[in-house]
């Protein structure tokens, strides 16, 4: 019952949830990552830990290899704590937990263990935004930076591509809780974020209207209390034959219009991307590195 799917599966008994995994920690990669937002990666890199399994199941997922919970290595909570410390030793700017929602209880234990052993880096919670406030409250005081998606405003679009018509109903209060926990954005002398919330929105081809609705809602709700990452890196995957409207990239004209719209509604704290981010080379290799 950790996420809005409420599948009711007893993952502690080895049953598999909607997320595709049991409660055993399944991790696909733990390494320095250079392609997060500049204030997270910097020159040293973000210490990303990619968890297998996902409660969203988006048809266009770029990390589909691990999202289905079929790839990765099973590790203990103590090993996860060690990985955090190893990434700190490698010079990471932060510990970046990618798709962590279905492992929140285990992650809480690992963070506490690592902090007792000398972990001082900011912790980044990098999620789909499809979260329960009750679960996020368990993390209060442990997470320094929230990095959620805001994928959809329109419930029908959310249902077609992620089978969650209620996506915005959960994402909006979840992001409000994240901002409550982190407060105003805070950076160190090198320009690296050490506290705050960055909301990502991945623009999909042909859905400019929904993207504009999302930016409007974020601006009206939070103004300069968050940063918004307006992303154009949507990459069509081979498995999208059932969704012909998603078999192309976002055009330069579509993305430019969205960026101009953000300026028009006075969004000041935003990241934008160049066209080369649509290249598949930006998708990491989930080869078990660092696990």
Architecture overview:
By secondary structure, this protein is an alpha/beta fold. The chain has one domain (11-282): Alpha-Beta Barrel (TIM Barrel), CATH 3.20.20. It has helices spanning 38-41, 64-67, 77-89, 104-116, 133-137, 155-162, 167-182, 208-222, 252-264, and strands at 25-33, 46-51, 73-75, 95-98, 123-127, 145-148, 186-187, 193-202, 227-231, 270-272. Strands 1, 2, 3, 4, 5, 6, 7, 8, 9 and 10 form a 10-stranded mixed sheet that branches. The protein starts with 24 loop residues before the first strand and ends in a 19-residue tail after the last strand. The mean pLDDT is 95. It holds the Pfam family Radical_SAM.
Tally of alpha and pi helices: 9
Give a quick account of the main beta sheet: strands, pairing sense, barrel closure: 10 strands, mixed
Could you tell me the CATH topology label.
Answer: TIM Barrel
Order of helices and strands: EHEHEHEHEHEHHEEHEHE
Mean pLDDT, all residues = 95
Rg over CA atoms:
18 Å
- The general outline is globular
Integer count of domains: 1
Q: Strand pairing plus helix content: what structural class?
A: alpha/beta
CATH class call: Alpha Beta
Measured between the Cα atoms of the first and last residue, the distance is 27 Å
User: Can you name the CATH architecture?
Assistant: Alpha-Beta Barrel
Strand tally is 10
Name the CATH homologous superfamily. Answer: Aldolase class I
What low-confidence regions span 5 or more consecutive residues with pLDDT below 50? none
Helix fraction bin = 25-40%
Query: Percent of residues in beta strands?
Result: 15-25%
